[in-house]
Amino acid sequence: MKSIILAGGCFWGVQAYFQKIKGVIKTQVGYANGTTINPTYEDVCSGTTNYAEAIILEYDENTISLNDILKKFWTIIDPTTLNQQGNDRGTQYRTGIYYVDDEDLDIIINSKNSHQQTLDKSIVTEIVPLEKFFEAEEYHQNYLQKNPNGYCHINLDEA
C-alpha cells in the first residue's frame, strides 16, 4: 500500500472521484502543508493558515500505478490556475501534489512534464514533500456520498 496527497480545489469532489478508481483503497479529506496546528475548516477558509484542501489517497500499487493516478489527477484539475478551481477561489483551493516517499518525486516530475506538453500555459501545481496533514472534520468526510446534490467542480461521471 502506498500513499500520495493530492490537492485539487474543493476536496469533496477530489475524494469522490478517486473513490471510484480501481486500486484506490482509502481516501481521507484534510488540510495539507499549512502553518498552524490542527486547523478547522473555518481557519483554513480564512486564508491565514496557508493550508490546501487535500486528500490522502492510499492505493494498491499492484493494481494502479502512481503514474496512472497522476494522469487521472491532471484531467480533473486546471493545473494552470493559481489558487482557484472552478468557482472556488483562495489559497486553500490551490493544486498540489504532496509526496511522502522521495522515490515518487521522479514519477511526479515526469508526469508533470508530460502533461505540460499538452498545455499552452504553465503548470502552477506545487510539488513538495508533505510537511503536515490534519484530518478535516467528520462532516467533510465522504461529503458527496452524504449529500449527492452537493457542489462539485469535477465531473464525477468520468471516473
Kindly describe this structure:
The chain is α+β, with helices and mostly antiparallel strands and 159 residues long. It has one domain (2-152): Peptide Methionine Sulfoxide Reductase, Chain A (2-Layer Sandwich). 26% of the residues lie in helices and 25% in strands. It has a six-stranded mixed β-sheet, covered by helices on one side. The protein has a two-stranded antiparallel ribbon with strand order 4-5. One of its GO terms (molecular function) is L-methionine:thioredoxin-disulfide S-oxidoreductase activity. This is Peptide methionine sulfoxide reductase MsrA. Belongs to the MsrA Met sulfoxide reductase family.
In oligomeric terms, what are we looking at? Answer: single chain
Number of helices: 5
Question: What do the pLDDT scores average to?
Answer: 96
Instruction: Summarize the amount of helix as a percent range.
Output: 25-40%
The CATH architecture is 2-Layer Sandwich
CATH topology: Peptide Methionine Sulfoxide Reductase, Chain A
Gross morphology is globular
Fraction in beta strands: 25-35%
Task: Give the SSE order as H and E letters.
Answer: EHEHEHEEEHEEH
CATH class term? Alpha Beta
The biggest sheet, with number of strands, parallel, antiparallel or mixed sense and barrel status, is: 6 strands, mixed
* Overall strand count: 8
How far do the termini sit from each other? 21 Å
CATH homologous superfamily classification: Peptide methionine sulphoxide reductase MsrA
Number of domains: 1
Q: How do the strands line up in the largest sheet?
A: 7-6-1-3-2-8
Low-confidence stretches: none
Secondary-structure content class: alpha+beta
